[in-house]
Amino acid sequence: xxxxxxxxxxxxxxxxxxxxxxxxxxxxxxxxxxxxxxxxxxxxxxxxxxxxxxxxxxxxxxxxxxxxxxxxxxxxxxxxxxxxxxxxxxxxxxxxxxxxxxxxxxxxxxxxxxxxxxxxxxxxxxxxxxxxxxxxxxxxxxxxxxxxxxxxxxxxxxxxxxxxxxxxxxxxxxxxxxxxxxxxxxxxxxxxxxxxxxxxxxxxxxxxxxxxxxxxxxxxxxxxxxxxxxxxxxxxxxxxxxx
Length: 243
Prior knowledge:
Helix 8 crosses helix 10 and helix 9 packs across helix 10. This protein has helices at residues 3-13, 32-35, 43-54, 71-78, 94-104, 119-130, 163-166, 179-191, 197-210, 216-225, 229-242; strands spanning 17-18, 30-31, 60-64, 84-88, 108-112, 133-138, 141-146, 150-155, 169-173. By secondary structure, it is an alpha/beta fold. It has eleven helices and nine strands. The longest helix has 14 residues, at 197-210.
């Protein structure tokens, strides 16, 4: 087996701890297997994220897809990174975002529902992504700084984003789960929580068919409270009653 093939296999299996090629002390070892351990499949996207972590300069990634697709799982994983900051696009404000960027200087800026970020706030993000420079003028005083920040974001629809911002992302599109995918991912998530496969299957089936949800987070809620099929059915029936 040649060196390149061996390298690709290591990426796919997440068997190595990856670190920046220039050994910059600002970078921490990132165990890709642990970081994305709860995500079943998507080895190619895991590899793209890992390559982004390894890049000497920031490479930004946008995940686009319907609610409850795997994009949320990737953002949740990235939140485990050191010096990461999570924000909801709908709750962001220009002042709050700038204050945090100046004070905390995050390495990774993670934004869910970025399409709900107001246009004036998107301009701050654009400058950060393009040059790393952030500026603010307040009370006739100006402050500026330059950061080295990776932006990882998700959205259901990218049409509301400024075109210049989109051009600075690697854009990856997710499809909604099929039932088989949903079951497989649910089983994978609960392996770490020692939930038997048959119970994980029952959780996925009840969430999919009875609660009409395709959100893995709903499976997590049920699986952490119920250990038998009877308990799952009772909890789902009760939730539906009060829905």
